[in-house]
Design goal:
The complex is a heterodimer of chains A (286) and B (79).
Chain A (H helix, E strand, L loop, with lengths): L4 H7 L2 E5 L2 E6 L1 H11 L3 H10 L2 E3 L6 H13 L2 E5 L3 H13 L3 E5 L24 H12 L4 E5 L8 H4 L5 E4 L4 H14 L3 E7 L2 E7 L23 H4 L4 H18 L9 E6 L4 E6 L3
Parallel strand pairs in A: 2-3, 4-5, 4-7, 5-6, 7-8
Antiparallel strand pairs in A: 1-2, 8-9, 9-10, 10-11
Helix pairs in contact in A: 1-2, 2-3, 3-4, 5-10
Chain B lengths: L1 E6 L1 H4 L10 E5 L6 H7 L7 E6 L2 E2 L11 E6 L5
Parallel strand pairs in B: 1-5
Antiparallel strand pairs in B: 1-2, 3-4, 3-5
Classes of the chains: A alpha/beta (286), B alpha+beta (79).
């Protein structure tokens, strides 16, 4: 009988005990070459292997939280991260490490010195380079099978519908109230869930907005005139810590959505202040 | 009428004059709404994001009743 892709992968697999469970595990190289032989991407080959009960070692430590089928599902999902700064750079890395099938990262900016305190992949050598290109290149070093597209573009009414095409979930990593509201509208129009997170100094908020739900409209302050509406972060700044925490929370939510589960923060706003350990869940209108 | 007020720590210093305590009781005129409360506390309206009354998010024109707990959270959009 002719060998299938799964047969080829199984041939390179070995048993491994992880947390009391025995898994059939395989190096990603074997998955990649089997994929090449059978004309599918490495991502798809990994998903097929997982469905057959074989775990690429790269994802072994994810299995305890997402399961084999869940990991296969993530490998076939598409996430779009709008913003490649403090939140977006971290979120992009977390998504790739969780094994998201494909990722689009959108940001018009280049790295500058003020980004060095917090933005993932920002270092002296890349100042002046487009953030999305640096992020893409670093992500491909982390996982050469990752499918990452860099969009050096402003996410606005004109560009968003194209950028969101095929997305299973969107991570809101923007930096103004007005842009985030625009993104929410575009996500609603595209029928995609948006994992929102924002920071200001030691404060953080997060909620996950389903298409058509009020979401961010629930807490926009009154308009302060022309120009982008921003929050208190213009005075409190952006330390290294809270953007990463926001990214963790938003990616956790995005993973839930890609797994077909309801987001934990649907319809409620998580507000945290690390200064005095305030942690509040605020019910929003549905 | 007496109400309970909770102001996010980061907003205390933004109030004019600055507020000293995160939680306090306040005597407000009958018929006050959330917007009037924010104004009377001297907190710039543009810095306020969510306001909850008895832990439910409320619009700015929501009326406040005696014994209510009103929590004021800053507008946050950094990324």
């Amino acid at each position: 009988m002719e060998e299938t892709l799964v047969d080829a992968v199984r041939g390179a697999a070995a048993e491994r005990v992880e947390g009391g469970t025995t898994y059939l595990c395989v190096p990603i190289d074997a998955v990649r070459s089997a994929g090449g032989r059978f004309g599918v991407t490495s991502r798809e080959a990994a998903a097929l292997a997982l469905e057959a009960g074989i775990v690429p070692l790269r994802y072994l430590k994810n299995i305890g939280t997402v399961g084999l089928e869940g990991q296969a599902r993530l490998l076939r999902s598409r996430a779009v991260v709008i913003g490649a700064g403090g939140i977006g750079g971290q979120a992009s890395e977390l998504l790739v490490r969780m094994g998201v099938g494909s990722l689009a990262v959108v940001d018009p900016d280049v790295f500058d010195e003020t980004n060095l305190n917090r933005q993932n992949f920002a270092c002296g050598d890349v100042l002046g380079m487009p953030k999305v290109e640096v992020v893409r290149d670093r992500l491909l070093e982390i996982d050469s099978d990752a499918e990452v597209t860099a969009h050096r573009a402003v996410a606005d009414a004109g560009s968003l519908s194209g950028l969101l095409e095929g997305a299973d979930v969107v991570v809101d990593a923007l930096d103004s109230l007005s842009d985030r509201l625009l993104l929410q509208e575009a996500c609603a129009a595209a029928g995609v869930v948006m994992a929102h997170g924002a920071i200001a100094g030691t404060s953080l908020q997060a909620t996950t907005v389903y298409p058509g739900e009020p979401g961010l409209e629930s807490f926009m302050p009154p308009s302060s005139g022309p120009g982008k509406a921003r929050g208190i972060e213009v005075e409190t700044g952006n330390p290294a810590t809270t953007p990463t925490l926001a990214a963790v929370i938003q990616v956790q939510e995005a993973v839930r959505v890609m797994l077909g589960l309801e987001a934990a923060l649907r319809g409620r706003l998580l507000y945290i202040d690390l200064e005095d350990w305030t942690v509040d869940f605020i019910e929003l209108e549905r | 009428m007496l109400i309970n007020v909770k102001v996010a720590t980061v907003l205390l210093k933004k109030a004019v004059p600055p507020l000293e305590r995160v939680e306090f009781e306040l005597d407000v005129p009958d018929g006050s709404d959330v917007e009037a409360l924010i104004s009377s506390l001297g907190i710039p309206a543009g810095l306020v994001g969510s306001v909850t009354v008895n832990n439910r998010r409320s619009p700015r024109d929501a009326a406040v009743s005696a014994g209510d707990t009103v929590a004021i959270i800053p507008a946050i959009s950094g990324g």
